Amino acid sequence: MKNNMFNILKKELREMFRDKKSLSMMLIIPIFIPLLVIGMSALFESQMNMPVTDYNTIGFDYELTDVEKNIVTELEINAVIDTDENLEEQFQNGEIDLYVTKVNNVYTINGDDSDTSTYASNLVESYFSAYKNYLQTDYLANHNVDPEEVIDIILLEENIATEENFFASYVISYAFFFIMMAITVSATYPATDATAGEKERGTLETLLTFPIKSKDIIIGKFLSVSLSSIITGLLSLILAVISLKIANNMFTIYEGINLMLPASSLIFAIVVIFAYSFLISGLCIAIASKSKSFKEAQSALTPLTFISFFPSMIVFMIGITTTNLYAIIPFINYTLIFTDITNGVINYTHIILMLLSTIIIIAVVLKIIIKEYKSEKVLFG
Amino acid sequence: MLKAENIKKKFTKLTKKKEHIEFYANDGISIEAHDGEIIGILGPNGAGKTTFLRIIAGILEPTSGTVTFDGLRYQDNETEIKKNIAYLSGNTKIYNTLSCYELLHMCADIYGVEKNDAEARIMEIAKVLNMESFLYNPIGSLSTGQTQRVNIARCLIHNPKYYILDEATSGLDIISSQIILNFIKNEKKKGKTILYSTHYMEEAENICDKVIMINKGVIIDEGTPAKIKKDTQTTNLRDAFFKLIEGDKNEE
Question: Which of A18, A351, B17, B59 is most exposed, with minimal Cβ within 10 Å?
Fold first, then answer.
């Protein structure tokens, strides 16, 4: 009698591990993480290391001077000289990557937003920068002015994050978003099955005739769903770590960067995964228990799947930093704290606030469901 | 002793015109059941039998009225009362993914049966109900009759004092029905109190000590089968029931 919560947990786990759909949600979704990490890395690398021959065919509707021809050769540009109309046609047919038209001293770069055109545009900008530099230097020299005194009048040194760091942070963040999504999806099915599913199958009425307190029923169900989410979360994290290690060695964009999280960061990442798993399990059970059927519960839970990772994704894109306030806002707090952890920043105040906020929300949610299970409305509402 | 006093249960129904209509499924039903008694709750579909038995089993709350088991009320002693009752309906569903053995073990744990006693009791019940051949099979793989036997086993596991059986033989073949009727007779001999609802009048006449006839949420007659037949000057409960309904219609 004392262990009725444990009895319910045991029953739920038996049902969950014997149900193919629950098992596949729990174990198969994490497998997509290595695909995401390796796939994104491959995409970044292909963009970073695109060979110049893929985008260096540039059209000009005017004859190039000797100086221009030298720059073209230096920048490995494959120049195509033709009329404006012909160049446009060649561009439409994909024979050239970009073309430049000239009216008096006005040069127009014509292209589109495709990858090759964008890269070609950068190449042409380098070309014009070099040509402009030549013209300025030549003009100053003809007027007996030392060009170095004018052109290099100021010196600019760059101290900004390298592109490799940007890619690393991008791929790690997206791996975390995917872990969150996997946890959410993993919680959805067992939560639906344990509440609305049990109602639909008619076993809830039987359960309610047993001498079990509503509190034990709900906590038992909550723990079983949380366990499913935690298993998915931990499996996803392990696969993310392994795939980051593989990506680190496989792709040149990560050269000189260590994608691996230190042990302390991994421990706190696990804390975040546990907190998020408990929160999402509580919310899923709360929403699904209001539904009369499995289908109705799944429809009701669909928005939660989006809410669970969209705000976090937006926060990451905008570049918001963690504050005490953000640390208590659900969903956003997990992303921000995880980003901090991956950057090597362990802020205990933020982590404690995140945990407190999670505990309070779960307590309130569970209290509401327990009250509902005490009433006949759970069966006939 | 089980006592239900003036039980009323109001429901709200949504009509096709989206209007909310209130109606009483039970309208002032009272019963008293003593140790070793089988009380038959008889009536047609929609009479309010299931609602009444669900209230007795603690699944539904009455709009008004009280239910007491040996002086204990649900409001104060829900867990204590439920430990002493077993509820079984023709529609009772059990967990298909569990084996019969796992279900019985779970029920024994929930009802607080001692671990050593539970094992012996499961084996004993399995033998009595002829379940040994499928004891370790998943419930989902069993026939309707076998599933209902597992349900009876579930009710027996904690040796309850009160049985609430709602159309427990409905939809079963003659052999499975007989198993349930034998089970009821055996439990009566042990001094258990049984509330038994059915619309099979002959069945009730054979096993019930007392019968309560319900129609449209109210009791239309009650007493021993012999008394009801005498009251209505009929030879069986089926005829008695039709005579009582006719009387009801004439009064309307």
Answer: B17
Confidence check: pLDDT of B49 > 60: yes
Cα-trace Rg, chain B:
19
DSSP assignment, residue B27?
E
- Identify the band that residue B188 occupies on the pLDDT scale cut at 50, 70 and 90: very high
| Rounded Cα–Cα distance for residues A118 and A22 (Å) | 46
Which residues in chain B are closer than 8 Å to A214, comparing Cβ atoms? none
Helix (H) or strand (E) holding B5: strand B2-14
Q: Evaluate whether residue A224 is within a structural domain.
A: yes
Q: In the prediction, which pLDDT does A163 show?
A: 47
**Higher confidence at residue A39 or residue B247?**
A39
Mean pLDDT for chain B? 89
Handedness of CA A81, A86, A89, A90 (dihedral sign): negative
Burial category of A153 from C-beta neighbours within 10 Å (exposed 0-12, middle 13-18, buried 19 and up)? exposed
> How distant, in Å, are the alpha carbons of A23, A194, A232, B37, B99 from that of A8?
19, 10, 21, 34, 16
Q: Are residues A289 and A255 in the same domain?
A: yes
- What residue segments make up the domains of chain B, in order of their start? 2-84+163-251, 96-159
Strands of A78-81's sheet, edge to edge? A78-81, A57-60, A98-103, A106-110
> pLDDT value at position B139?
95
CA A352 to chain centre: 25
Contact flag B110-A208 (C-beta cutoff 8 Å): no
Identify the pLDDT of residue A282.
96
Instruction: At B246, give phi and psi (nearest 5°).
Output: -60, -45
Indicate the Cα dihedral angle B76, B81, B83, B87, nearest 10°.
-130
Asked whether the beta carbons of residue A209 and residue B57 sit closer than 8 angstroms, the reply is yes
Distance, in Å, from the CA atom of A283 to the CA atom of A368, rounded to the nearest integer, reads: 11
Whole-structure pTM over 0.95, yes or no?
no
Residue A239 contacts residue A332 (beta carbons within 8 Å):
no
Contact (Cβ atoms closer than 8 angstroms) between residue A218 and residue A370: yes
**A residues 6-65 near B, CB within 8 Å?**
7, 10-11, 14-15, 18-19
Phi first, then psi: what are they for B214, rounded to 5°? -120, 140
Decide: A37 and A244 in contact? Cβ < 8 Å: yes
Q: Is the pLDDT of residue B35 over 80?
A: yes
Reported as half-sphere exposure (CB side, CA atoms, 13 A), residue A221 has a value of 31
ipTM score for this prediction: 0.88
| Residue ranges of chain A whose pLDDT lies below 70 | 1-2, 151-154, 156, 158-165, 381
Boundaries of domain holding A123: 53-151
Res B30: pLDDT:
93
Residues of B with CB under 8 A from a CB of A: 57-61, 78-83, 85-87, 91-98, 102, 106-107, 109-112
Q: What distance separates the 2 farthest-apart alpha carbons in chain A? A: 102
